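Figure S7 source data.
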Amino acid sequence: MKVHEFQARELLASAGIPVPKSTMVTSVDAAHTAATGLFSSGSTMVVVKAQVHAGGRGKAGFVKVVKSAAEARAASAFMLGNRMHSPQTPPEGLPITRLLVADAVDIVHEYYAAVLVDRAAGTNTLITSAEGGVEIERVAATNPGAILRVVLDPLLGLQPYEARATALGLGFRGAALPQAVSVLTKLARLQQETDASVVEINPLVLTPPSAAHPDGEVLAIDAKFSFDDSALFRHGDIAAMNDPAEENPAEVRAKAHGLSYVALDGNIGCLVNGAGLAMSTMDIVKLHGGEPANFLDVGGSASEAAVTEAFRIILSDSRVEGVLVNIFGGIMQCDRIARAIVQAARNIGFTVPLVVRLEGTNVREAQEILREASVDIPTMATATDLADAAAKIVAAVSQPSPKRC
Ligand code: GDP
Ligand code: MN
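Tokens for the predicted guanosine-5'-diphosphate complex:
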């Protein structure tokens, strides 16, 4: 689960990492009021930022530093009135409904700092760079030497000497050094304690010297966090930050019905029981030259209503040109699936080819149900085994264009 920048800033602040003052707003008037408040309490610059689960906002014009409340009003009107297009948004862009109005700071340098679950290393890794502000993938591609990696001990986490070596390696000196060490240490602890898959500050900035901070101040001015969904049950405060508007609507509906659904890019909708069978179904579809439109595991004990809902979700995806049902009835009874197919045909209608492969508990009854209903479901074909099913559904849909590298 991802959270918005304003929520990530709250988590940073509660972990003791310095973050400029800010307010989240949902209207132009509220943005104007928030900016007025910041200017009258001493800010000379304010930044208006679209709150959306996609990066690249700066270049898209959805992060704007302003010098007056009137400018803040204009920037907010633009952001709330236009969809944002960036390399990280879908082609049609994303609507913006929330803004962050924050105290803006002068920047001497922008850094990158993240702690993430590193599957290759089998532990968490701290990744930092003195080339912050831009996407880390770009730094990795153009200047990999500018990235510092510390593979963390799974039990001890980030050690004080590692935090110091990293901060020194990034170029922090004088009174800025202990500030940077403190930020890195707290960030690593936050990642561990919240079961985050990634906590990223980009940019972490150094401000110009001031009376209070003669060597500048180290501040987080943008953050992206992502949490392990399976651990959310023990972080009620974080689970409550979920914004369903930012998620794929089909995935939200599926979750509400106890289905595991992940939308993919292909044209073959798959309805399968069991995550392992779903994975192997996707593999065999690909082996036959097809592209799955989704991963959908209806589970072992899904009701007829949930399975009908699964069909509704698959068929509501306009890219789906064919549906493959692959059920191995262990706990799940095949006749329940067969009844759901009949229900879905009745309630939604199958206009696209449907290939059904059923095996296991109550398969005879299931075949009987489908045989009786087959006149009403003219696009349905049955398959004898998984390879036969994959071959039939791939033949029934248009072929994906060859991938360019
Ligand atoms: P992103 O583009 O979605 O990652 O949004 P960021 O919040 O990282 O902002 C993009 C860029 O805008 C940053 O890298 C900064 O260069 C600039 N920016 C953001 N906030 C401030 C600020 O408070 N002061 C100044 N001077 N620049 C800022
Ligand atoms: Mn950023």
